Amino acid sequence: MSDSTEDLRMRDFQEDLTRLRRPRLLVSAARFGLPDYRRERMLKRLIGTVPAPGRALPRLIEEEAIQEDARRADAADYDLRRHLELVIAMMAEARLAAASEMASETTA
Known about the structure:
By secondary structure, this protein is an all-alpha fold. It contains five helices and no strands. The chain has helices spanning 3-19, 24-33, 39-47, 57-72, 80-107. The chain is globular, with a radius of gyration of 14 Å. The two termini are 19 Å apart. The model has no long low-confidence stretch (mean pLDDT 84).
């Protein structure tokens, strides 16, 4: 896949994030947890791997959607801690992807 195609896909994922509607308390808690985000540790726990910056976002979005569906259904297997960690990771990875994109634009 070309770099321009990858950039377009990443922008699509970032747009998806801006459209997400989640409970204010969940989003506030995630923002509060951002300073403690440890990429390697959290991504290994959440998705089992530590991909290059920006590449984790699609998988995190998928995993978070599963938790959101469970929350909305009041499912017995809903895991608030995992949901919160996924939202923290999504926010952090979106910031990392944006910073990486800006850095590549300034060097191009």
